[in-house]
Amino acid sequence: MAQLGSVTPSSYLPFNKVVLGTEGICITVCFFPSSLPENKILVEQPPRIMAFNENATLACKYAYNGTGNEFRASLNKGADRAVEVCSVSWNGSFHNHHSNKDFNCLVAVDSHKKEVNFSLWKLNTDQTDIYFCKIEVMFPPPYISNDKSNGTVIHVKEMLCQSPIFPPATPFWALMVTLGFLAFYSVLITAVFVICWWKNKKNRILTSDYMNMTPRHPPGPKNKHYQPYAPTRIHTEYRSWEP
């Protein structure tokens, strides 16, 4: 058994054990390796992503300290990784992108942050599955790829059809007030028209003159000396000198 404070060295295990001999207590302290073994790639990706409006972006971070200068990153669908969704190859400046015809995918590489972003859009519910990021060193030899990661479940929810939005209905009382106003206005206009017509007709009757008419010949034998006459209107003039 090791003494107090002694550490069991292990360059390949993700943690080391520290044993306190005097107390008989074993404490496990995790130490992440400060440097990766050469020619090894580690990939980190989120466990789950919810597609928003049929769109999703999967960020795959990788760690590599080798001498490779030509890489390839791909996104694979399914537990058996049978379907390659899209991929990209780069060597520092040149990027070559490829996408599956059944997917809408765009890949963005950030070599400084060592991160590859896979952007997917117009996803459907049938494409809900687990997706794996794969990073490969293509040149120089030897060929290296990351170990199988836990993957990311991309869940695509079904889009609900939005019901059409109708304008708010006009309140019943407002409709009745409008109809009442129109009816009152129509009656008022009609009454004014009738009154004006009646006054005009009355004025024409009062101001009309009598027409001169010749009387008919009296019945009986004709009188040769009879002369028809026309009544004349007697105009009475006011004379200031008369009493």
TrEMBL record:
<dbReference type="GO" id="GO:0031295">
    <property type="term" value="P:T cell costimulation"/>
</dbReference>
<dbReference type="GO" id="GO:0051897">
    <property type="term" value="P:positive regulation of phosphatidylinositol 3-kinase/protein kinase B signal transduction"/>
</dbReference>
<dbReference type="GO" id="GO:0043491">
    <property type="term" value="P:phosphatidylinositol 3-kinase/protein kinase B signal transduction"/>
</dbReference>
<dbReference type="GO" id="GO:0045840">
    <property type="term" value="P:positive regulation of mitotic nuclear division"/>
</dbReference>
<dbReference type="GO" id="GO:0010629">
    <property type="term" value="P:negative regulation of gene expression"/>
</dbReference>
<dbReference type="GO" id="GO:0032743">
    <property type="term" value="P:positive regulation of interleukin-2 production"/>
</dbReference>
<keyword id="KW-1015">Disulfide bond</keyword>
<keyword id="KW-0472">Membrane</keyword>
<keyword id="KW-0732">Signal</keyword>
<dbReference type="GO" id="GO:0045589">
    <property type="term" value="P:regulation of regulatory T cell differentiation"/>
</dbReference>
<dbReference type="GO" id="GO:0045944">
    <property type="term" value="P:positive regulation of transcription by RNA polymerase II"/>
</dbReference>
<dbReference type="GO" id="GO:2000563">
    <property type="term" value="P:positive regulation of CD4-positive, alpha-beta T cell proliferation"/>
</dbReference>
<dbReference type="GO" id="GO:0019901">
    <property type="term" value="F:protein kinase binding"/>
</dbReference>
<keyword id="KW-0393">Immunoglobulin domain</keyword>
<dbReference type="GO" id="GO:0035739">
    <property type="term" value="P:CD4-positive, alpha-beta T cell proliferation"/>
</dbReference>
<protein>
    <submittedName>
        <fullName>CD28 molecule</fullName>
    </submittedName>
</protein>
<dbReference type="GO" id="GO:0006955">
    <property type="term" value="P:immune response"/>
</dbReference>
<dbReference type="GO" id="GO:0098636">
    <property type="term" value="C:protein complex involved in cell adhesion"/>
</dbReference>
<dbReference type="GO" id="GO:0006366">
    <property type="term" value="P:transcription by RNA polymerase II"/>
</dbReference>
<dbReference type="InterPro" id="IPR008093">
    <property type="entry name" value="CD28"/>
</dbReference>
<dbReference type="GO" id="GO:0002863">
    <property type="term" value="P:positive regulation of inflammatory response to antigenic stimulus"/>
</dbReference>
<dbReference type="InterPro" id="IPR013783">
    <property type="entry name" value="Ig-like_fold"/>
</dbReference>
<dbReference type="GO" id="GO:0048304">
    <property type="term" value="P:positive regulation of isotype switching to IgG isotypes"/>
</dbReference>
<dbReference type="GO" id="GO:0009897">
    <property type="term" value="C:external side of plasma membrane"/>
</dbReference>
<keyword id="KW-0325">Glycoprotein</keyword>
<keyword id="KW-0812">Transmembrane</keyword>
<keyword id="KW-0675">Receptor</keyword>
<dbReference type="GO" id="GO:0050852">
    <property type="term" value="P:T cell receptor signaling pathway"/>
</dbReference>
<dbReference type="GO" id="GO:0032753">
    <property type="term" value="P:positive regulation of interleukin-4 production"/>
</dbReference>
<dbReference type="GO" id="GO:0045066">
    <property type="term" value="P:regulatory T cell differentiation"/>
</dbReference>
<dbReference type="GO" id="GO:0045060">
    <property type="term" value="P:negative thymic T cell selection"/>
</dbReference>
<feature type="transmembrane region" description="Helical">
    <location>
        <begin position="172"/>
        <end position="198"/>
    </location>
</feature>
<keyword id="KW-1133">Transmembrane helix</keyword>
<dbReference type="GO" id="GO:0032733">
    <property type="term" value="P:positive regulation of interleukin-10 production"/>
</dbReference>
<dbReference type="GO" id="GO:0097190">
    <property type="term" value="P:apoptotic signaling pathway"/>
</dbReference>
<dbReference type="GO" id="GO:0001772">
    <property type="term" value="C:immunological synapse"/>
</dbReference>
<dbReference type="InterPro" id="IPR040216">
    <property type="entry name" value="CTLA4/CD28"/>
</dbReference>
